[in-house]
Amino acid sequence: MSQNFCVPVRILSPLRRCGATLLALFPAALSAQPVVRATITGQVYDSVSSLPLSNATVRIVRVDNPAVGRTATSDVFGRFRYDSVPGGGWLATFLHPVLDSLRLEPGVVRVNINESGSVTLPLAIPSARTLVLGNCRGPQAPDMGVVVGEVRRASDDGPLAGATVEVEWPEWVLQRGRMVTDLRRRVAMTDSLGRYALCGAPNDNTLRGFAWSAPDSTGAIEVQTSASGYTVLDFAVAPVERLTMRPDSTTNSTIVASVRRGQARVSGRVTSLDRRPLANAIVRVIGSGSQVRTNSDGNFVIPDAGAGTQTVEARAIGYQPLRLAVRLDESAPTDVNMRLPVQRVQLDTVRVQAGRELVPELKAIERRWRMGVGTVMDGNMVRDRSTLFITDALRGINGVTIRQVGGFGQSIMMRSSNGTECSAGVIIDGQVLPPSQAANISLDEIARREDIAAIEVYPRPNMVPAEFTSMIAGCGVVAIWTKRATGGVTPVKPKPVTP
C-alpha cells in the first residue's frame, strides 16, 4: 500500500495527512459556493379601495423555466410568504376577483435572488388616480374621473365593437352673472373587444348613461360614479322597438317616442324595508311607455320588457322611489325584489329676511304670481299634489295633459297657438331644457320633490311671460325652480288685493 493513500471520507479534514495531493485532486470542492436560498414575504394591497387584499392567489415562476413555480394565498391582512426559494430570477403575479371587477389585467414583477436572506415583495392594484391617468390622455382635473367597462350583445353575450357609450348630467354654471344648469355630456366608443374608457366624468355624482349600436340600444340607467374617480359600468345591448304613440283618439296629433318593448319578462315583489308587501305600487321598466301595479301581496309581472340593460323603477305613496339597473334576457325571466324606504318629510326653509336681500329669481317668481296669469305652486303645494311623480302635480290644471310616453317620467302636453297639441317648453332654474332632451328627460328625473321651491305653469303661448317667450315659442311653458335657485327660500303666495 502506498504511503500517499488518503481515505476519501476525510477529504474535508486538515490537509496535513494528504499534503498537497488533495488540493490537486479536488480543487472544485474547496472553491464551491454555498447554496443560495431566500425567504420571500410581501403583501397584496388594493390601492383603489385602500385595503389589503385577502385570499389573493400569489404565483411565482422561474424566469428560465416557467413550469417551475410556487403558489401561496394571502391572509386576511393580504400577507404571503415563501420559504427556501432557490436563487435566480423569478416572476411574481397575483389573481383575485377584484381584478376582474375593475377590468384589470394582473401585473408581473421580476425578483432576482442573488444571496440568501429575506426578500420583500409588495404587490398592489394601482391607485384610482393612476388608473384614471392611464386610461385618459392629457391632464385630468382632480374632480374628474373615468368610467370603464364592456358593451356586449344581450343575445349571445358577445363583445360589441364600435358601440357608443354616453353619459350625461346637469351641472351648475355661472352664466351672465347668474347660476343656471347646463346639461353636460361625455361619449366613448368601444374597441374590437367591446371595451371602452369614458374620460371626464365627475367623481361621486349621479349620471344618466346608455349605450347603443344602431339599431340596437340599452335603456337609460342611473350611474353612481365612485368618489375615487374610477368607475366600472357594463352594458348589454339588444334591439329596440320604435313605436309611434298616439295619446288618444280625440286629437289628430301624434307623439313619436322611442319605447323599448320586447319579449323579456320581469317579475318580483315590492315591499317596505321591514319586508311588508306594498299593494298598488307602480312598477315599470323605464322607457317602455307602460307600467303595472302590484297586487295585494306586492307581486308584479311585466311581460313585454325590452332585453338588455334596463332600469326597473318602483314607486308607492309614502315611500321613496327605487330604481335598479338590471340585465334582462328574452330566453329566461328575471326576478327583481324591491324594498322601498319610507319617504322622509323635509320642512321648507323658514322665510326670514333679517336684512338679507332675497335673490332676484325669488322676487321674479312672486312678481309673476301677483300678476295672476297662469298657475304658480310653491314647494309645499307641489308635494301635496304629486303623490308619485312631480308631473302629477300638474294634473287637473286647465290646458295641461300628462301623458305616459317613454323616457324616465311623464310628458307634459299643452296647446299651440293654432290649437294643436304640443310638447310643453321646460325651463329649469332659468335654463331651457332643449327639445331633444325634453323628449327623453322629464321633470321627474331632473329634480326631487323635496328640492322643489316652485313651479310655474303657462298652458297657452299668449299666457307665457315675456322673459320666457324669448326662450321658448310656439307652445306653453313649465318653469321649475329648485331651492338652490331661490337661495333656499320658498316663494310666498300673494295676498288678495282688497278694494
Summarize the structure in words:
The chain is mainly beta. The chain has five domains: 1-31, no CATH class; 37-125, Immunoglobulin-like (Sandwich); 129-239, Carboxypeptidase-like, regulatory domain (Immunoglobulin-like), CATH 2.60.40; 243-340, Carboxypeptidase-like, regulatory domain (Immunoglobulin-like, Sandwich); 360-482, TonB-dependent receptor, plug domain (Ferric Hydroxamate Uptake Protein, Chain A, domain 1), CATH 2.170.130.10. 11% of the residues lie in helices and 40% in strands. It has nine helices and 35 strands. The strands form eight sheets. Strands 10, 11, 12, 13, 14, 15, 16, 17 and 18 form a nine-stranded mixed sheet that branches. Strands 1, 2, 5, 8 and 9 form a five-stranded mixed sheet that branches. The termini are far apart.
